[in-house]
Amino acid sequence: MSMRDIPRSAVGGAVKLARLPLDIAVAMLPANGHGTGAKPAAAIAVDRLEAALRDAAGIALFDEELREDAMRRRIAADERERELRLRAEAEQRTAEADERFSARVDDAEDHRTAAEKRAEHERQAAERRRQQRAASATRRASARKVASRKTRAKVEEKLEEEADEARLEQLKKEADALEERERALTAQAEAQRLQDTATKKKAARKKR
Question: Residue 2: what pLDDT?
Fold first, then answer.
């Protein structure tokens, strides 16, 4: 070992002793698991301090090798700092992309929910219209039956009052015609009911 190596070794030992409590403090800092955050930044700061101490010692001892070692340590710290900055920027971009994606997912979900509500509203409106048509058809059928009964009562009254066989036959024909018309109207109402039922079943199948 040369005479110059002795103070150089002493400087190394002193620097290591000086940074020991700092290394312990850095080791106790929380890590985020991604190589970014306070812990790696603090470690780089301690490395810069060591480089500065070595450079100062090299100046004091006129030791160019110590100064070159200090420079290499500063360059390495700069490189690690640059890598840390790039990694942090990448994490930031990833977080922003995730946030934008989550926002798009939320928007799509809102649109889907609104579409489902509109579809449900349309189904309910269609069901109400069908029920209204069915109720209206029922009322018309009931009204026709009442009118038919009244007409039949009048016919029967006339049949009782009229003794003429020809008139009686005519009145019977009228009664038959009214009865036939009633059956036709009833059949029409039933056909309408069956059509409404088929429409409802078809809508139910589409819903599934």
Answer: 47
